[in-house]
Specification:
This protein has 135 residues and is mostly helical. 74% of the residues lie in helices and 0% in strands. The chain has one domain. α1 packs antiparallel against α4. It starts with 7 loop residues before the first helix and ends in a 9-residue tail after the last helix. The relative contact order is 0.12.
Amino acid sequence: MANRLIPLDYFAIKAIHQTAVALSFTGFFARGIGSLAGAAWVRSGAAKTWPHVVDSVLLLSAFALAWILRLNPAVSPWLMAKVGGLVLYIALGLVALRSGIPLPLRTAAWFSALAVFGYVVSVAITKSPAGFFGS
């Protein structure tokens, strides 16, 4: 990346991506607490639709950043780690927010999803598959 010029759009897209990350985390955190507490608002249309909008912006901005930087997960281990972490985060989030699953399992899945989210962010910051766990 040292000899490549980064277009100005990169910084705008990165800001959009980081904002979507913060909104996605905040929404998941709130929905998790609400769901685990049995709050009715988590079953509302807005609570079910808004996360899809935010996460779509998040994924589209991620693809745009990868395109601008010419990153390929197959040859960028840290990016592959982020993708793998994202898949695990989604799976755990589905368990955490799904009604009908026993509360202890949902709670464990919610806390695990939060930990995986932290790992994915640490990989993004360090550009290392080990994230903050690396040396």
